[in-house]
Write a structure and sequence with these properties.
heterotrimer, A mainly alpha (85), B alpha/beta (396), C alpha/beta (316), B: Peroxisomal Thiolase, Chain A, domain 1, Peroxisomal Thiolase, Chain A, domain 1, 2 domains, eleven-stranded mixed beta sheet, C: Peroxisomal Thiolase, Chain A, domain 1, five-stranded mixed beta sheet, 12 helices
Amino acid sequence: MEQLIEKLKKELIEELNLEEITPQDIDENAPLFGNEGFGLDSIDALEIILILERNYGIKMANPSEGKEIFYSVSTLAAYIKANQK
Amino acid sequence: MRIFVTGIGVVSGIGLGVEENIEAFRHMRHGMGKVTLFPTELSVPVSEVKFTNEEIKKNLALQSNKTYSRTALLGMLAAKEALNDSQLDTSSCRVGFISSTSVGGMDLSENFFIQFKENNAKGRLREIASHDCGDSTERIASYLGIQGFVTTVSTACSSAANAIMLGARLIKNDHLDAVIVGGTDALCKFTLNGFNSLMILDKEHCRPLDNSRAGLNLGEGAGYLVLQSQKTITQQPYCELSGYANINEAYHQTGSSPEGLGAYMSMNKAILQSGVPEESIDYINLHGTGTPTNDLSESKAIKRIFGERVPLLSSVKAFIGHTLGASEGIEAAYSVLSVYKGIVYPNLNFVHPIEETGLIPVTRFQEGLKIRHVLSNSFGFGGNNSSLLFSSVEDI
Amino acid sequence: MMQKCYINSVASIHPEENEGCSLVHACEPDYKMIITNAGLRRRMSRIIKMGVACALESMKHYSSSQIDAVITATGLGCLSDTEKFMNALIDNEERMLNPTPFIQSTPNTIGGQIALLCQIHAYNVTYTHRGFSFETALIDAMMRINEGDEHVLVGAMEEINETSHLIMKRMGLLKGVKTGEGAQFFVIGNESDENNPQLKGVEIFMTLGSEELLEKKINEFLAFYGLNKEDVDCLMTGKNGHQRQDVIYVNIENRLFPNAFYSTFKNTCGEYQTASAFAVWKATKMLNEDGMIKNVLIYNHYNNINHSLILISKDI
């Protein structure tokens, strides 16, 4: 799980173009979205859906399912572990 | 100074020309179908204009071996109808042409790119020469013989509203006496995929204002108005362009605020500018794309302005699709007829109102109603929100 | 009577002088220092950064609430994002496409980002008509001032990349011409404390077909502002190195303005559809720095199709 979380952090930094952010800057339990969180928005949610499909083979047809799954890096990692093909 | 509408022209997935469009509404005939204009993996409903480029060129008496973007061709059809309808003599006064588009000549560019990508010495140059937004405007102006002020607006889905506004203001500021204004957009693979990547397309026929709505269907077409001041009109106008507003919601790059702040500001400003009291507005042509966010925010904003006395309202996008840069050009023309002939347009696929707002749109075509003022909305990416107000006129 | 329009603030991102190159890129600042919102900055391509940074620079002495309109112009828009999405579309066969380049490819993105960053809810529009794009923006700005606005933010941005340069070359448009890019933004105001240069008039027209008609047009334009040819201290033309296209400028210099000071601008910024924005920046600078120049007339054309006249004056 630790490895997956580290990998995810790197993928988020890369794909979402989070300039000058290192994996250490991301608290895996902190909220990713909204002003209280890391500040990601609905476009980032779409890109995370792509990461899930491209890198983990998980297809998410409905973006509204993402609200809980994308809450934090940890919840995302848990979802991937549970659903990865 | 008052600005009047003296001509209208439309081409859409439901018809060539204003008459055919109204007939389609009258008989509840929508324009949705599969994509036929280009090969695609995407299986979504779209509203294509039911003519090939070759057929359109023939209709316009253009040489078939000359290359035109579909955007330009659609624009020529609609702009020509509007100009003829107005009976304006373009040599008699200062006439301009302001067009809007979001895709420009992308229908041709995307063909060019496939070959260029393989080998950058390949690809037919005449297919990339029309890429930019200004190309279709110049082609249409040239076709109509307009030699005066010509320019292009591109603010995504609110583009044509802004073209109409600019035209009105150029007359008010004494730069022009008459102006042909509106927009045109052809369906293309780039845009279809763009909207698909945003996951806002409905894989089924869209359901504007319905609680179960799941997204929009794209369309193509063109719509233009002729605007003139009292100084130059030679026939009874359709109506008056009595108000307009352009604001930026500044909430998010593509989404609208859940409270509908942008929609509220846009409509409110147009109404204030016109001096028309809200209770006199008899019909609203909604932006009504069918996306969960737009329809909710637009509805909330309407309730905020009109309270319990919401006028008749509907979205036409289940008929003609979301025609992007053309949408307010086409829908302004429909709004003009709404005032002139007392028409309200049916909102297809409506079953249950949105839970939070409860708005119920018109679902049957009706004409001969007393429609004093019509509000027409168009909201685009980049927070660009615009609203227009059309009003009936006594004999001029 | 039109309300006076003062050019109260200017900013520019443009190439340095670059002899012998066929493609010149702008000298770009460190965007992190200007566009401090990392969340929005991370999605911006070069043209968007150029436009937004330039706008922010020009607005730095104004609060967001003071800006009554945001008017932007670009001829070709966001080429790199368009190309990125197009390539992905072809490579991935319409599957798993990242939406960001698509969203960023629309020409009104820059205007939208300025509004978003600064929370400006005012009138916001983008013009995209070749060599008329920036001129339309100026005309709209002047109308806004006439209609009661106090401060209007107006600007243009254009980017050049290898693809568009190559396509233009293949089309034969670059004989002796260097392609360029840049962004310029201005705050136009209805008042000026410091006797800033005034944007007096802008006119756009398609090719007139004869030099006699062009001369007539120029004379009429000047007369409308109470000037004759001799009042033009500096004639700034859009000479771009294209032998045939530059002839018209030389003829106008000789026939109408034999005693004026001649200036050009495309030797610095290169040729592109909104290059006249750099001309306005240069003319404004000239009027601010040279106490003897009163009237600058800019005459430019793009591909000998879109022609424009811009008159900028200063009371001395």
